[in-house]
Amino acid sequence: MCLGIPMQIVEINGFNARCEAKGVERDISLFMLQDDAVEPGDYVMVHVGYAIQKISEQDARSSWELFDEILAAESALSNA
User: Which is it for strands 43-47 and 5-13: parallel, antiparallel or unpaired?
Assistant: First the structure.
């Protein structure tokens, strides 16, 4: 199973970007989005260090909410 994480672009340097999600920052390759116009403040879906798709802020927030629900359910099961 593959997992993509929504992240917000903080800064861009060529085909590399510093991205942030929920307080965690990572350096991400923008090489796969070289035909898309991306800029700081945009949201991207990240898989294994590559931005694979530009997404809306609402889509990013919805994904984070789902991840939070999954983690809460997992925590409740392990504490039972």
Answer: antiparallel
* CA–CA gap between residue 54 and residue 61 (Å, rounded): 14
| Among 71, 69, 33, 65, CA closest to 49 | 33
pLDDT > 80? residue 26: yes
What 3-state DSSP class applies to 51?
Answer: strand
Contact 31, 17 (CB under 8 A): no
Bridge partners for 29 per DSSP? 16, 50
* pTM exceeds 0.85: yes
The set of residues, in sequence order, having a beta carbon less than 8 Å from that of 38 and lying 6+ positions away, is 9, 12, 17, 30, 44, 51, 54
